[in-house]
Amino acid sequence: MNWSDYDAALFDLDGVITPTAVVHMRAWSAMFNDFLADLPGQRPYTDDDYYRYVDGKPRFEGVASFLESRGIDLPYGDPADDSSQRTVCGLGNRKNEAFSEVLAAEGVEAYPGSRRLVEQLAERGIKLAVVSSSRNAPTVLRAAGMIDYFPVIVDGRVAEEEQLAGKPQPDTFLDAAAKLSVPKERAVVLEDAVSGVQAGRAGAFGLVVGVDRGAGRDTLLENGADIVVTDLEELA
């Protein structure tokens, strides 16, 4: 690809800039398997469930999607629900507590190739934004020493405040491009999640880059990626 054809890069965060997708996966697994242990006849939650039902989606939507796949009916509740409550929101908040504990204990560093690409794009004058379903994006970027590169961050909190539909809808990416004052045709979406590349394709962006951190090259291409890389250094 030729970066001179584009004016902005819209990065997903977890699994694209930082390896926090692994932390999220561990937190989801711990939360769901603890919950399922009390339900007779339920098989354990697996990484396959993560990629099918949770990856890239807003937290509460991920919970609802997985529960629906298992035929489990819980009240939605309220986003302010305590993590002990047996509601969609309660389970989502329980997962977020687990994620925060791991992040505080272990910290996070950006993928070296992703850091190099971000630094090079900043030097070239390409406008940069993070578009993440996570509500923890600023915290993660600060922990990784990357927040100063991104004047625009559209995360789960922003999406809720501005009533933007989450991925696979394109709304959060479109919002980021608008805040950077860049036409969508001149913006590149960089995503590792199926729901993210679907959002990039639905938004008709200039280019959708799939980053294969486990979803699979063919899967990302089938769902809307124009090209697929295994490391963002390939685009530097």
UniProtKB/TrEMBL annotation:
Gene3D superfamilies assigned to the protein according to its UniProt record, in alphabetical order: HAD superfamily/HAD-like, Putative phosphatase, domain 2
Enzyme Commission code: 5.4.2.6
EC main group: isomerase
Keywords: Carbohydrate metabolism, Hydrolase, Isomerase, Magnesium, Metal-binding, Phosphoprotein
Cofactor(s) the record lists: Mg(2+)
Cross-referenced Pfam families: Hydrolase
Name of the protein in question: Beta-phosphoglucomutase
UniProt source species: Aeromicrobium piscarium
